[in-house]
Amino acid sequence: MTAIHSVKGRRVWDSRGNPTIEVDVRLEDGSLGRAIAPAGASRGTREALDLRDGGNRLRGKGVANALRGLNERIAPALIGMNAADQLSIDQKLLALDPTPIKENLGGNAMVATSLAVLHATAASAGKSLWQHVADHYGCTASLPLPEIQIFGGGAHAGRRVDIQDFMIMVPGAKSFDEVMEVTNEVYFAAGDLMSSRGCLAGVADEGGWWPEFKSNEEALETLILAIEKAGEKPGDRVVISLDVAASEFGREGRYRLALEDREMDSGELIDLLGSWLDTYPIVSIEDPLGEDDTPGMVEFTKRHGESVQIIGDDYLVTNADLVEQAKADGACNAVLVKVNQAGTVSEAVQAFSAARQAGWGAIVSARSGETEDVSISHLATGLGCDQLKVGSFTRSERMVKWNECLRIQEELGTDTFAAGRALRGTWWGRKQTGMNR
Ligand code: PGA
Ligand code: ZN
Fold first, then answer.
1. Backbone angles phi, psi at 391, to 5 degrees
2. Which among 310, 303, 271 has a CA at the least distance from the CA of 287?
3. Whole-number pLDDT of residue 422
4. 110 with 151, same domain?
5. Catalytic residue check, 206
C-alpha cells in the first residue's frame, strides 16, 4: 500500500482562457500524480456539474469555491488512504458529495483529483499510465483509432453551422502515424478549398476550421472534396464521422436548423440524417437526436444501427445506468467516455464496462475546453477503447494528445493499433471483408 501524503488543488487556465483546476497528489513514497479538469461547452444536462463561482468576475467562471472544497474537504479525507485502491478513493469522493450531479464539490474538482490519484499510482509503480490502467482494470491495451475534426460547428464555432463536428477517421491505416499523415493532408486540403471559396472564417474551439457554409450539407460536400484533394477515395482508407450534438438545437422532439432556417420534428431529422448516410461515406454519428428524445434515438438506431456506429454522448453522459437503459431500449450502439462527465475514473470505467457488456463500441473523448493534460490518451489505450476523439489537428491542447499516442505506440508496437477493428460492425467493416453495404 502506498498512502496518499498530500492533495493540493490550484487554479490553472484552459484552452479557451477560462480558469480550471489542477490537482497534485503526492504519495508517501514521493511519487507525484497531476491532472487538470477539462470543460465542455455543449454539455449534457445529466452530467457532473462543472462548479463555477458565478458573478461578474472571470465571466462567472471562477473556481474559487471548487478549490476551497478540494483543499478543505477532499484533501483531508484522502490523506492516508491507499492510492492504489482507485475504487475506494472514488467512493470516498462520492460519499463527500452524494448529489446526483456532484453539485457541492463539483465534477471539476472531483475529476482532477480522481485522475491525479490514478497518475500517482502509476508513477509509484514505475509504469506508464496506459499500462497501469490496463493492469488495474484487466484490459488488453491497444492504441485507439483517432476521430479527428476538420470543421467545427455548433457551440464551438458561434453556431455558424448547426452540426457540431465534421470529422474524419482513417480506419484503413496501418499505424497511428499513418493516420496523422493522412489527416494532415485532408485538414490542409479542406482549408485551401474553403479559403479559395471564401468560406473560411478562422479556427473553431477544437482547432477545426471555422466555416461560413450556406448549408450543413455544404460542409459534407466540401469534406468529400478535401478527402479527394488529399489523394484519397472517400470511403476507402478515409471515412466521415459526425457529431450532430442535436440537444444543442432541439428539445422534446422539435429541432431547428438555424443555418437553413428549417424547423423539423424527430422523424424529419431522422430522414435528413438518413439521406446523408445514403449519400456520404459516414461511418459514425454521435447524438443524432436530442438527449431527451428516446423515441427518436430508438428509431434512428433501428434504421441504421446495423450499418453505422451510433454514439451516445449527451444522451448517455458516461453513465453506466444510462448505458444499460439505452441498451434495453435499443438506442445507440456505442458510448462516448468523458471522465469529467462522470466525475470520477471509476464511474467512467463503469460506463465503459457497461458498454462492453452490451457489445458496444467505446470512444474516449476530450472536451472543447482542454489543456496540456494527456490522461485520456492513456485511458483510451489502457482500456483498449475503439476510438479517441480529441478535436482537430491544430492547437497544442489537441496535438499534445495525438503526440502522446505516438509515444505510446512506440511502447506498444504498431501491431496493437485498433484501426479498422473498431468499425467492423459498420458498412465499412463489411466492405473490408468483401460483404455488401
Ligand atoms: P463539449 O463538446 O466538450 O463542448 O461538451 C464535445 C462533444 O460534444 O463531443
Ligand atoms: Zn458530442
1. 100, -145
2. 310
3. 79
4. no
5. yes
Active-site residue (options: 206, 232, 248, 291): 206
Residues 176 and 312 in one domain: yes
- Residue 174 shares a structural domain with residue 315: yes
Q: Report pLDDT for 417.
A: 78
- CB-count burial class (<10 Å; 0-12, 13-18, 19+) for 258: exposed
DSSP symbol at 49: P
Q: Residue 314 Cα, ligand 2 centroid: separation in angstroms?
A: 6
Are residues 230 and 353 both part of a single domain? yes
Predicted local confidence at residue 414, as pLDDT: 65
Predicted model pTM:
0.97
Residue 437 in domain: no
Which of 367, 371, 389 has the most ligand 1 atoms within 8 A of CB, as the residue to mutate? 367
Q: How many whole angstroms from 77 Cα to the centroid of ligand 2?
A: 34
Residues of the chain predicted below pLDDT 70: 414-415, 435-437
Are residues 316 and 231 both part of a single domain? yes
Q: Residue 101 in contact with residue 107, Cβ under 8 Å?
A: yes
CA of 27 to the centre of ligand 2 (A): 35
Is residue 210 domain-shared with residue 104, that is, in the same domain?
A: no
8 is catalytic: no
- Considering the domain architecture, whether residues 172 and 303 belong to the same structural domain is answered as yes
Cell numbers standing for residue 115:
485522475
Can you say whether residue 195 is alpha, beta or left, with left for phi > 0 and alpha for psi between -120 and 50 degrees? alpha
Cβ–Cβ contacts within 10 Å for residue 99, how many?
A: 11
Query: Which pLDDT tens digit goes with each residue over 236-277?
Result: 999 999 999 999 999 999 999 999 899 999 999 999 999 999
Q: For ligand 1, what atom is nearest to the CA of residue 205?
A: 4
* Concatenated DSSP letters of 304-360: HTTTSEEEESTTTTT-HHHHHHHHHHT--SEEEE-HHHHSSHHHHHHHHHHHHHTT-
Find the ligand nearest to 155 CA.
1
For residue 86 and ligand 1, the question of a CB distance below 6 A is answered with: no
For position 111, which CATH number holds? 3.30.390.10
Residues 100 and 249 in one domain: no
Which three cell numbers, joined as nine digits, stand for 350?
Answer: 463503469
What is the model's pLDDT at position 415?
Answer: 66
Q: In this structure, are residues 19 and 62 in contact, taking their beta carbons and an 8 Å threshold?
A: yes
Strands 309-312 and 282-286: parallel
Write out the residue range of the structural domain in which residue 83 sits: 4-126
